[in-house]
Design a protein that fits this description.
The structure is a single chain. By secondary structure, this protein is α+β, with helices and mostly antiparallel strands. It is built from three helices and eight strands. It folds into two domains: 44 residues, no CATH class; 72 residues, 2-Layer Sandwich (Alpha-Beta Plaits). The strands form three sheets. It has a four-stranded antiparallel beta sheet with strand order 3-8-5-6, covered by helices on one side. Strand 5 and strand 6 form a beta hairpin. It starts with 7 loop residues before the first strand and ends in a 5-residue tail after the last helix.
Length: 135
């Protein structure tokens, strides 16, 4: 609780009577900030956990581009991944940097990770496609 004069208190209420305060503990501004960060972090973590609960039949996968892939050094559009597999490539990770929604003109390099969303058969097909070896 923050008062108009700037004082802050951590207040604990009775579960049986939410209007009844059991204890009130004065806290400093830094303590208030730390408490807000801790409580905020738990909310953020729970939201991130919810995001990993994938709908039935839909999966997300990271796929590394091997050095001998025929697509290494070529534009992403050359894979025709969505047309051929039904899978969407939603991001590309290169040197720990994320390229969200990569354009078909984005060149993919050996060692890049494709972040793809699709069905299990579609992801399996994409995996086979990107590991195709150059001659």
């Amino acid at each position: 609780m923050t008062f108009r004069d700037g004082r802050r208190e951590l207040t604990i209420f009775d579960l049986e009577d939410p209007d009844s305060c059991i204890v009130s503990i004065p806290i400093t501004d830094p303590e208030s900030s730390t408490l807000a960060e801790l409580l905020g972090a738990s909310v953020v973590l729970s939201k991130l956990t919810e995001l990993t609960d994938e709908p039935a039949g839909l999966f997300t996968e990271h796929m590394l581009i091997p050095s001998d892939s025929i697509y290494a050094g070529r534009p992403l559009g050359d894979t025709r991944a969505r047309t051929r597999t039904g899978v969407s490539i939603v991001a590309l990770v290169r040197d720990k940097k994320v390229i969200p929604s990569p354009a078909p003109s984005e060149t993919i390099e050996a060692g890049d990770a494709l972040i793809a969303v699709g069905t299990r058969p579609g992801l399996d097909s994409l995996s086979e496609l990107i590991i195709s070896k150059s001659d």
